[in-house]
Amino acid sequence: MCGIFFALSQRSYIAPSPEELLQLKRRGPDSHNIIRRKLQSESGTTTIYLTICASVLSLRGHGITEQPLEDPASGSVFAWNGEGWNLNGHTIEDNDAEKIFKSLMIATRRHASIKSESCEVDELRCNRIVDVIRSIRGPYAFVFFDAARQNVYFARDCLGRRSLLWMAGRDGSLVFSSLSHNSQVSTWNDVDADGIYMFAIRAQHGLLAGLSDRRSHYRDESRDTEQATWPDDESMIVSTRFPVRSTL
């Protein structure tokens, strides 16, 4: 059992409360780390503060694999709470978090040689990432930050065997966590265990892609995806849900 805390804000870094941090450490007593990032728009007018915290209970591999996992070349970050038994039809013998993160990074680099910012290239990249996640067998919850595209992917396995909650603040902040502190139970929502979710952090437009319970869905049959729009004071923010057929 591991713990995940992931937060985005346009004001400042958001840290877990002392009580939340204590509970995260209890879930993962072997290791605990925090990564903080500033995401700056090209114009320099917008800053988004990103915090990723993870604790680890080491059950796989020959040593302790500290989280969050980070790719130095791209800056991508992965926080994992699960037991991945099989990936793309192959049994995972070593640390599952490392194996899955490596596969995700290979997926992001598959089209790195194509010098284009087109929607087609972005869609190919996204589909590659989703294919990796769909191939995981075992219980899990995770948050993956694809730094090059500033996209965030998050999901739980189809049976919801690992917890992942989200909470949207009135200031536009967004937090994901493996647990909720008792005093804030009413403000947290379960991440639905019905697909793989992705949203874009559009720092260049001064937007923070947040969640709200005022969401509506429509299905795009041609892509086998479902779009969810969350009304915001400034704009319409779009998140994409990719159905998971089986992740047992």
Fold topology:
Layout: E1 3-9, H1 18-27, E2 31-40, E3 47-56, E4 69-70, E5 77-82, E6 86-87, E7 90-91, H2 96-109, H3 119-134, E8 136-137, E9 140-146, E10 151-156, E11 165-168, E12 174-177, E13 189-190, E14 196-200, E15 216-220, E16 225-231, E17 236-242
Antiparallel strand pairs: 1-3, 1-12, 2-3, 4-5, 5-9, 6-7, 6-8, 9-10, 10-14, 11-12, 11-13, 14-17, 15-16, 16-17
Helix pairs in contact: 2-3
Task: Provide structural commentary.
- The structure is a single chain.
- This protein is α+β, with helices and mostly antiparallel strands.
- 16% of the residues lie in helices and 35% in strands.
- The protein has three helices and 17 strands.
- The chain has helices spanning 18-27, 96-109, 119-134; strands spanning 3-9, 31-40, 47-56, 69-70, 77-82, 86-87, 90-91, 136-137, 140-146, 151-156, 165-168, 174-177, 189-190, 196-200, 216-220, 225-231, 236-242.
- Strands 4-5-9-10-14-17-16-15 form an eight-stranded antiparallel sheet, with helices on one face. Strands 2-3-1-12-11-13 form a six-stranded antiparallel sheet, with helices on one face.
- β9 and β10 form a beta hairpin.
- α2 (96-109) runs antiparallel to α3 (119-134).
- The protein is globular.
- Mean pLDDT is 77; it is low at 204-223, 227-238 and 244-248.
